[in-house]
């Protein structure tokens, strides 16, 4: 097994790097880690494959993992995971330990599982995607953090208030597998497999091998009702009446009157042309698990 380690330098303080490298070495991984800014992660993964790597270990948050997975999915090569981010949704749902030393030992053991990935207009995601309220909040939040230096939590609170104040429901036409329907909604959520608990921030999945998209449509409601439903989602208290779940979905087309839409993809916001085509790629990614 030829292994390359790519670690996102932005995922933690520089003072942690020596400890992380020691944990990697202690687990018996002989490859020297490459520390890189997030924007170069995918390029390094491609270079690793070109040099004959059979396993690429990605260290970082969900965005880093998605970038590496986009390169590896469908190649037969394997991804290892060192969870260096804040939330680490994908690593957590695979049962990978949060402790870096323990996670490195999992990589060294080399047990491989094939898991599903999802895509929207060719953009791969491991966790989820959303349109409507959530991507607008993320854009506002990140702008505040860059310009005003606000903490992530404070910026998100301010962004939520401002988004609620100006947001209007959007009318969408959904093609679910081969069935069409029109909806008016403030939020459409699409997950890679079934989210059993919650949809924003604290979701978890029992399986990443079911081969289906998990689709939730927030019900159209008053502005006050919208605020209440979104807050319940944020704090893991979603009620059955807040959302409509679409089941058995393997492909989803979302058509809007707008030519372009901001789309959240694993926490990053990307501008995409309408229509949005969501698909599931069953067991397309080899990943090392406990």
UniProtKB/TrEMBL annotation:
GO biological process, one term: methylglyoxal biosynthetic process
Nucleotide-binding found in the keyword field: no
Presence of the UniProt keyword DNA-binding in the record: no
GO MF annotations in UniProt: kinase activity; methylglyoxal synthase activity
Keywords from the named record: Kinase, Transferase
Recorded coiled-coil stretches: none
Alphabetized Pfam families for the sequence: DAGK_cat, YegS_C
Gene3D superfamilies: 2.60.200.40, Probable inorganic polyphosphate/atp-NAD kinase, domain 1
Record's GO cellular component terms: cytosol
Residue span(s) of domain DAGKc: 1-124
Designated name of the protein: Sphingosine kinase
